[in-house]
Design brief:
By secondary structure, the chain is of the alpha+beta class. α1 crosses α2. The radius of gyration is 27 Å and the shape is elongated. It has three helices and five strands; from the N terminus they run ββββαβαα.
Length: about 140
Amino acid sequence: MARMEITATLTVPDEELQFSYARSGGPGGQNVNKVASKAVLHWPIVANTTLPPEVRDRLRARQANRITAEGELVLQSQRYRDQGRNVEDCLAKLREMILQALHPPKPRKATRPSRGSRERRLAAKRQQSHRKAQRRKGAED
């Protein structure tokens, strides 16, 4: 049973990864019409059992635009002119996405504006108000 290794302790079984191939766009000469070099990776995240649930949820939230209604993550690569390198590129992209989802986002600490920044903001408002007041009719008085 082959596995795609994410970290020393985390892997994704190759049985869960399904590839399909299509003709790639872009330049390529006469050979481009004969070879399906674009690799498309389909990975049903909902069926995965190796990722911890919180990592899987973070991955689904971060990559929501790449996930189909059936819960399948779809990645594609057509960077290279041969199929094998595009498959490796898809796997590298998936590995990078999972590595990013491993780390929970740092919670934001609520801060308050400093006294100086509040004073500068109010001074700028007074200056703008004065500038506009000078434009009004009757300001010559």
